[in-house]
Write a structure and sequence with these properties.
The protein is of the alpha+beta class. It contains two helices and ten strands. Keywords: Signal.
Length: about 150
């Protein structure tokens, strides 16, 4: 009987712990502060009065959080949505595309499956969007899809 109670408590603890991890690491889910972090630096408002495709960006050096102050200095608080931009979340040359985004604001030409050395930068307030066919677009035009969320090309 006591072993059954211990097992039930252990199962409850594991289930609760895994739910806490999921809640803390979810991207594009509305939080108590009224926004949904899309990645570490971009968010959208969770209001029926704001168009869902309007994406906002934290200032340089800040991350999107679940706090009342949406953006806070990187390192001062964990981002609400952790991305894996540093480990290769940007597209690579695979022979199917002539260009790929290599950071939020840059793109490069592909030579088959090899990235060429010339880096092209988008104009101010534009982000890379090869999929749009325009190379660089306004953030709100990109919607919730940021093709590459690195600060700079590797």
């Amino acid at each position: 009987m006591q072993q059954s109670q211990i097992l039930r408590n252990l199962c409850f603890f594991v289930a609760f712990s895994s739910m806490a991890v999921v809640v803390l690491g979810l991207c594009n889910n509305c939080q108590e502060n009224g926004v949904a972090c899309l990645n570490e630096t971009h968010y959208r408002f969770c209001s029926p009065n704001v168009a869902p495709n309007q994406i906002a960006r934290c200032s340089d050096g800040q991350v999107c959080t679940s706090l009342g102050i949406i953006c806070i200095e990187k390192g001062a608080y964990d981002p609400a949505c952790s991305d894996s931009a540093a480990d290769g979340s940007c597209p690579t040359c695979d022979g199917s595309s002539m260009f790929v985004c290599t950071s939020r604001t840059t793109f490069q030409m592909c030579d088959g499956s090899t990235l060429t050395s010339q880096v092209t930068k988008c104009k101010d307030n534009k982000i890379c969007s090869i999929k749009s066919g325009k190379y660089c677009v306004d953030l709100c035009e990109a919607g919730v899809s940021v093709e590459c969320d690195r600060e700079a090309p590797l």
